[in-house]
Specification:
29% helix, 14% strand, alpha+beta, Alpha-Beta Plaits, 2 domains
């Protein structure tokens, strides 16, 4: 699935763009089986370092996730260590949200 405004890619189980809040459209005619999951965004934050720390813990705990950087970082592949304005969103399945939120807040604080 693709956002028609910002062209960000999403899993087929996601219905709205996390940035634009627009309904997504089919990315291609190929249909890949993806488990039905309701994905929820954790609080967004700045910096790749925090993102890497959080997702490393998610990997260790077996929490599924996907990350989405701001448009500039995504489109141009720019990944500074902690570039100002480099906002990152991490999405997790609804069933893992509370655990993932607790981990995220332990890294970025109670924002």
């Amino acid at each position: 699935m693709i956002c028609p405004d910002c062209y960000a890619e999403y899993f087929t189980s996601v219905e709205l763009c996390g940035d634009c809040d627009k309904p997504l459209v089919e990315a291609s005619l190929l249909d890949m089986p993806i488990p039905e999951m309701k994905w929820i965004a954790l609080p967004y934050f700045e910096g790749k370092v925090y993102s890497d720390m959080i997702t490393e813990i998610f990997d260790e705990k077996g929490i599924p996730y996907y990350k989405k950087a701001n448009w500039t970082s995504s489109a141009y592949g720019i990944q500074g260590i902690n570039t100002a304005g480099d906002f990152i969103k991490i999405y997790v399945p609804k069933k893992s949200y509370e655990e993932a939120l607790m981990i995220t807040k332990s890294i970025i604080g109670g924002k």
